[in-house]
Amino acid sequence: MLASNSGPDIASRAALRSLMQRLPGMSTVEGGGFVEPVISSDPPSLRSAQIVEGTALRAIRIPNLSAETGSQFGAFLDGAQRVQVVGHHQGMPVVFGTVSAAVRARVDRRMITWGHQPPKVERRIFLPLRYLPELKVLGDASGGLSQSQWQIVDTSTADKNGDYPSQHPAVLLERAVRAVDQEREKLEDQLAEAWCARGEAPLYIDGGISRSGPVASSTYAVGVIKSHRTLYVEDDALRIVLGLDKGERSSVFRVSPRSRNSVMSWYLRLRDAKGHDPMWGLVRVEVAESNRPSERADEISTWVMAETSPLSLPDGRWDKMAYGVRDCEEFLRAIS
Amino acid sequence: MSEALGRVVATERKPNTPHEFHFWTAIDSPVGIGTIVRVDGAQPVDGHIPHIYGIVVEGFSYTDLQTPMHDVMGHDGSPTTAGFAATERAEIRLYTAAVLRQIPEEPLQPVPMGQVYLAEEADVQVALRMDSYLREGANTGIPIGVYRAGGTDAVIYLDADFLLGPEAAHLNITGVSGLATKTSAVEWLLASLFKHFPDEKGSIAAVCFNVKGPDLCYLDQPGKIEQSDEALYEKLGVEPKPFESVEYYAPYTAKGHALNTFRNNEALLDNVTPLTWGLREVLQFAEVLLNKDDVDAKADALIDFITMNVVDKEFTDPMLQKKHTVQSFADLDAWFRDVLQGMEKKDGESWRTHHVATIRKVRNRLSNISTRCAGLVTDSGTVSDLPFGSFADRTVYVVDVANLEEDAQDLIFARIVSKLREHLERRDLGVKHLVVFVDELNKYAPGDGADTYVRKMLLDIAERGRYLGLVLFGAQQFRSQVHRRVVGNSGTGLFGRMDPDELATPGYAVLSPATRTKLATLEKGQLMIRHPHFTQPIFVRFPRPAVMQGREGSERYPQAGEVSLEAAVLRALRPLDSTITLPWIQEITALYTEEEVIRARNATLLARPENVKAYFASQFRKAIPTQAAPRPMAGSIRSVPENDPYGF
């Protein structure tokens, strides 16, 4: 997932002008900065998982791994989001959010945009309507806001317990950012489901696959997770995972998050971590349940290892990021 | 309409201007350096969608790689494993194009964003402003070659008004030697000119000075044409055949037996005419052969005196022993001898204000000319010249000076061009337009060095010739070393493959590095063209000339070596009368000196009489064959009287 920091485009500026007309008294933020994605408020944690390959987690060298090893991935999926506080009304944050997602297919070793589902780009304005005066209704000549391109999302609605958020600007901003996250995930899931429905070739998804049922159960979806805020190992297993050498994977285990779908998963060391932190080059792979977990894990690990070249530098996450994912991010940066 | 092949892009660092723009294409697009493209603007200007035509002058390619080190790391330092990478890096082809034309032309604005299309034939005409001179009823286009790019084949035309005048004129060709570009291009262009030069503009002919090699010696002989060339000829509307009317001129060798040309094979002599001049012709251009140290004001005055009062006139002077009628170098030498002897007798130091030292110097220098230009200058005064006054339309006159000494080349060049100029000024040359092709301008019109007569004359043609219909087609290897005013006055420039050192000179700084690189690697048959209508140079292909190339010609028609006098006379006269045989020549010339035989041959060739044999024989002075004196009859010995007491 990409958090872009490029400047506001023409459409954003038009929408801002229109919003200022509808919300008198709103002040704009000069050169408004971008808001980083919200890092989960949950602390980093270890969580146990059910081993499905053998009885205890161990390090397994991927067989037949060499520079000539090919990859069967036919495409890459990633999403991007951009969140910007563009103004305030009596201290209440006015947030613009843009989310996008794309599948970039690989044809003759070159990346092109998947032709069956165009890339998705959506824009939203996040307002705490409960704490703002009623928006004026403008005529057709109102510009960007009257058009459906910019939907307004209320960030001050009650939660499932019926509690309204506080007026603290940081809380409202966090709500807006979470809403943007969800919008992006929705777009990613739509594209992933469309790809899996066609079933042409395995899809490399930047992130997990358990959110969507059709994706989590598809043999064409492979999720590769780069961040490890939650590690699905404990005790000795943790030491084994952190001690994996390049080209080694862990045993396959099952991940069954709450309110999500169960998938098979394993850790894989893409690059030699000597001289780096223990997470260097470490990814967690998610695939649909399979009755041949060992073979499946070996096969897909081979593909993921093959995707380590070319390097995705200069991205700071290049030790874990496939070049195809970087290509998606660059593409989304260009179109959104 | 064809599919778009690119999109215009501009950034703050690399903005578009009214004269330059940038665009990207797919990696497999047919765009290259020299490709002509059309941009269709997205927004109307004054109610018109702007169309911009440009030619690609620079190309860039790069990937998203930030530093080469990343690629090394990505493949563990092993280039062989790079090929196994699952994905190729994202790559861009970014081109810079120079604007050829904007429509509408006002207001002149920076090139807008828009789709980029490969120019089609009609686009090429508009882009190069050829539409202004290819109009029905006012077509002055002369095909010079075919522009080719991505499936577009477009004929490129030069404007005759800007090639042969009066708007602009002259053409200059440059390129490295040995790639058959310069001479071939001129041969092709002359063929195209003769075919397409508009009838209403009058007649046209060409005088080509063959200064080296045999390349121009077989213009009337068919050459080998490949299929691809035939297609080009068809596209360009010219028949692939040799020139129909070609006349060759060459002086004799120093011995005077054979013509001093590569084209002296007996099979080709029918249209080869000797080029010989006498005293009068040479004296007019003595300045060409005498350097400034020789010809000071005093010597110049004496030469003028001789030209005005001595040559071709009956000259008498009390000091001289006899009347002189000077018509040849031999007569002139006799005149000098008489003058000097007279002065010695008088013990005088000057005669008619001319000092004896000046007279001796001028005698020495002038007498030397017939030696230095032997074969061209005749002692006898026989003149055989180009047909000034009766030049024929669509005819090529080749003057072969390739084997001559530099002095003789200069003399021929100076006199012929001067005569051409005189006749064109008087409008009595026989044709209205004349192209003069001179190769090796590095030698004849150098940018530095002495200010020679030949260079002055070339400058004069370059600067004023277009008003007369006298057009210079010049060629050289190093354009940078030719006089600036000669190349500067050439409205049209052709460039074949260039030497990189030459391209590094300031004159080529206006070309982009990519264009210079292309120029340094041009194939045979490719040219870059500059023409007044084209705002940027254009690359074209032209067909191989449909004439026999020099190497093939010299193999098929080997140059005849120096032969005996009789054989040389036979070779010269047989084209006039095929019944002449060597024994007949030997019989007729047996009693005469070599000089007399040569004079008779030259006179016959000049006169081209009906009865060649009779005319040739009549040129010899009557000589009574020596007869053995009748042996006196020995008188009979008188018989001794029988009674003679002293008899025995």
Structure characteristics:
heterodimer; A: about 325 residues; alpha/beta; 13-stranded mixed sheet; two-stranded parallel sheet; 6 helices; B: about 650 residues; Rossmann fold; six-stranded antiparallel β-barrel; 22 helices; about 20% strand
Protein topology:
The complex is a heterodimer of chains A (336) and B (648).
Chain A (H helix, E strand, L loop, with lengths): L1 E2 L6 H13 L4 E2 L16 E2 L3 E2 L7 E3 L13 E15 L2 E16 L2 E4 L6 E8 L22 E5 L14 H30 L4 E4 L6 H4 L4 E5 L4 E2 L3 H8 L5 E3 L2 E3 L7 E7 L12 E6 L5 H14 L16 H13 L1
Chain B lengths: L5 E4 L10 E6 L10 E6 L9 E13 L4 H7 L4 H4 L8 E13 L10 E5 L2 H7 L6 E2 L2 E2 L1 E9 L2 E8 H4 L7 E4 L7 H15 L7 E7 L16 H10 L9 E5 L21 E3 L4 H5 L2 H4 L7 H14 L3 E2 L8 E2 L3 H18 L3 E2 L2 E2 H17 L23 E5 L5 H21 L6 E6 L2 H4 L8 H16 L1 E7 L7 H5 L3 E4 L4 H4 L9 H8 L5 E5 L7 E4 L8 H7 L8 H9 L8 H8 L4 H14 L4 H7 L30
Parallel strand pairs in B: 11-21, 11-22, 12-19, 12-20, 13-14, 13-19, 20-21
Antiparallel strand pairs in B: 1-2, 1-6, 2-5, 3-4, 3-6, 4-5, 7-8, 9-10, 15-16, 17-18, 22-23, 23-24
Helix pairs in contact in B: 9-11, 10-11, 12-14, 19-20, 19-21, 21-22
Short description:
With 336 residues, chain A is of the alpha/beta class.
Distance between the ends of chain B:
135 Å
Provide the succession of SSEs of chain A.
EHEEEEEEEEEHEHEEHEEEEHH
Percent helix of chain A:
10-25%
**How many domain modules of chain A?**
1
**Rg over alpha carbons of chain B:** 34 Å
Q: Mind explaining what this structure looks like?
A:
The complex is a heterodimer of chains A (336) and B (648). Chain A has 336 residues and is an alpha/beta fold. Chain A has one domain (2-335). Chain A has helices at residues 10-22, 169-198, 213-216, 235-242, 293-306, 323-335, and strands spanning 2-3, 27-28, 45-46, 50-51, 59-61, 75-89, 92-107, 110-113, 120-127, 150-154, 203-206, 221-225, 230-231, 248-250, 253-255, 263-269, 282-287. In chain A, the strands form three sheets. In chain A, strands 1, 2, 4, 6, 7, 8, 9, 10, 11, 12, 15, 16 and 17 form a 13-stranded mixed sheet that branches. The two termini of chain A are 13 Å apart. With 648 residues, chain B is an alpha/beta fold. Chain B folds into four domains: 6-78 and 87-127, no CATH class; 153-267 and 391-552, 3-Layer(aba) Sandwich (Rossmann fold), CATH 3.40.50.300; 280-372, no CATH class; 563-618, no CATH class. Chain B has 22 helices and 24 strands. In chain B, the strands form six sheets. Chain B has a ten-stranded mixed sheet with strand order 14-13-19-12-20-21-11-22-23-24. In chain B, strands 1-2-5-4-3-6 form a six-stranded antiparallel barrel. In chain B, a hairpin with an 8-residue loop joins β15 and β16 (324-325). The mean pLDDT of chain B is 88. The chains are: A alpha/beta (336), B alpha/beta (648). Chain A binds chain B through residues 67-71, 73, 106, 109-111, 306-307, 309-311, 313-314, 323-324, 326-327, 330, and chain B through 27, 64-66, 70-71, 73-76, 78, 81-82, 84-90.
